[in-house]
Amino acid sequence: MYNLEGKETGKVTLPESVFGLPWNDDLVHQVVVSQQSNIRTPVAHTKDRSEVRGGGKKPWRQKGTGRARHGSSRSPLWRGGGITFGPRNDKDYSKKINKKMKAKALFTVLSRKLKDNEIIFVDFITFAEPKSAKAKNVIANLSKIAGFDTLATKRKNTALFALGIKDKNTEKSFQNFGNISVDEARNLDTLDILTYKYLIVSDPENVVKFLEGKLAKSDKVAKINKLDKDDNKLSGETTKFVEKNTVKTTSKVAIASPKKSAKSAVAKVNKSVVKSKAKKLKS
After folding, report:
1. 33-72 pLDDT, tens per residue?
2. Which pTM does this prediction carry?
3. Confidence band of 255 (pLDDT split at 50, 70, 90)
């Protein structure tokens, strides 16, 4: 851990569950593509035949001209007509990301950044007033640390400052540097960390605690979702069992009732036959 002058002041204990994960390129790629898709705003837009101006009159009569039949001059077959299957600005490119996948991808990238020596932990970054000159001195001091010499010379996507708490003076101090970005640690995501070469973490103890709590929260949410799924599955199985047994009992009753009615009808016929024979014998 370093101070604003670039001098080492202590050490930070980093959890292996956040900063010690192996690289998983498939997971990181899937999460980054999803995040890029979610922030995508479609601009390209074409008009179909119903949106193009004109074409209300039938170009010529249906029969008798020898030409092919047409109903509108704004058909996609015509020059100046509508576009078929063109790009539309109402298309939705968003993709769903599971919370556990998103958290694991973030920790995977943090682990890789730490392994590549691209993370600096600073005890606390704060300014009494917004001053770009002071921010420039901080960048120059941190670039003296071994392995971070390009921090003061790289022109694009140099560093991302992750603050433990929101600080407007710090944000305004770095606002004039186009290659520097400042944000709160709670807003860190995989895409932002990969966009910038260096990650500079202010107030590392609280930031690390927040990241650990994020992991525990995602595990807790996953357990709750699993319990809900189990409950829904159990209730569904119970409902199916009750419905199945109900159908069986009703079918048995329905089958038994015709048999009883048939037996009673046969008994009545037999009785009437016996009575008629007895009358004949008497006569």
Report:
1. 999 999 999 999 999 999 999 999 999 999 999 999 999 9
2. 0.71
3. very low
Rg of the Cα atoms in the chain: 38
- Are 29 and 219 a contacting pair, CB within 8 Å? no
Contact predicate 68/23, CB 8 Å: no
The residue among 207, 187, 149 whose CA lies nearest residue 12 is 207
pLDDT digits (tens, 9 = 90+) for 215-229: 776 666 556 666 666
| CA atoms of 77 and 75, how far apart (whole Å) | 5
**Phi, psi (rounded to 5 degrees) for 160:** -120, 120
The CATH class that applies to domain 16-49+76-208 reads: alpha beta
How far is 80 from 77, CA to CA, in rounded Å?
9
As given in the structure block, the two tokens for residue 50 are 């119903």
Q: Please write the tens of the pLDDT for every residue from 151-187.
A: 999 999 999 999 999 999 999 999 999 999 999 999 9
Distance CA 93, CA 237 (A): 37
Query: Backbone dihedral region of 156: left (phi > 0), alpha (psi from -120 to 50 degrees) or beta?
Result: beta
Region of 131 please: left (phi>0), alpha (psi -120 to 50) or beta.
Answer: beta
pLDDT-derived band of residue 256, with 50, 70 and 90 as boundaries? very low
CA angle, 232 then 233 then 237, to 5°: 115
| DSSP-assigned states of every residue in 187-250 | G--HHHHHHSSEEEEESHHHHHHHHHHHHHHHHHHHHHHHHHHHHHHHHHHHHHHHHHHHHHHH
